[in-house]
Amino acid sequence: MNRTVVWHAGQVTGEERALLLKQQPATLWLTGLSGAGKSTIACALERRLLDGGHAAYVLDGDNVRHGLNRDLGFSPGDRTENIRRIAEVARLLNDAGLIVVTAFISPYREDREMARSIIGEDAFLEVHVNTPIQVCEERDPKGFYKLARTGELPAFTGVSAPYEPPLEPLCSIDTARCSVDECVDRLMGFLEPFLKAIHA
Ligand code: ADP
């Protein structure tokens, strides 16, 4: 760390923000294959949270790569840096008091553990969107599996790049077996303790 960079403490605490927003911030970290349903569930969950009066924000893989992480590719090193930056942004948004929902393949266990340590053990809620690859490939919403199978898209997770499933996720969701609404219901259940009004 550069010695000329010194932390400047603010006047407002995280507790005060939690009181203002009446919620305990947390990051629901959705991990899984492309086409598993992460973005769909994240956006439906954000909708449900906002409708319920909760401040929430989705960080989505492709969207972040349009801006903040536009300089990164899909090599293992770039994927790690992608996750590090996202985790730092999630931490800042949590610090601002928001419930964050992330939708990133985040294929490496070690990277997700890095995210956990950046965001904090208590706030990091890991969810495995565990849809079978056959279903993801049938859906192929962006046509990526087709390109990956013909080799036009290299280093594609699940086809030509590894996916390391979480060993002990908070929960595992198979979107081939439950509707978007049912998935959101389950995740709302896990968020419930964070959404209770906080009193001074
Ligand atoms: P990912 O973000 O994991 O790459 P997407 O959400 O972009 O996946 O795409 C998942 C696709 O699967 C969408 O076309 C969505 O409509 C479809 N789908 C079907 N059933 C479900 C479900 N229960 N949950 C989420 N997505 C579903």
Map the helices and strands:
Elements lengths: L13 H8 L5 E5 L6 H14 L4 E5 H6 L9 H20 L3 E5 L5 H11 L4 E6 L3 H7 L4 H6 L21 E3 L6 H16 L5
Parallel strand pairs: 1-3, 1-4, 2-3, 4-5
Helix pairs in contact: 2-8, 4-5
The structure holds adenosine-5'-diphosphate.
Give the CATH H-level superfamily. Answer: P-loop containing nucleotide triphosphate hydrolases
**pLDDT averaged over residues:** 95
* CATH class bucket: Alpha Beta
Share of residues in strands = 5-15%
In DSSP terms, counting alpha (H) and pi (I) runs of 4 or more, how many helices? 8
Second CATH tier, the architecture = 3-Layer(aba) Sandwich
Ligands bound to this protein structure: adenosine-5'-diphosphate
The ordered string of helix (H) and strand (E) elements is HEHEHHEHEHHEH
How many structural domains?
1
Q: Summarize the amount of helix as a percent range.
A: 40-55%
Structure explained in plain terms:
By secondary structure, the chain is an alpha/beta fold. It has one domain (22-195): Rossmann fold, CATH 3.40.50. It is built from eight helices and five strands. α2 crosses α8 (180-195) and α4 (76-95) runs parallel beside α5. The longest helix is centred in the middle third of the chain and has 20 residues, at 76-95. It starts with 13 loop residues before the first helix and ends in a 5-residue tail after the last helix. Adenosine-5'-diphosphate (ADP) binds next to α2 and α8. Residues 32, 34-41, 103, 139, 141, 175, 178-180, 183 line the site of adenosine-5'-diphosphate.
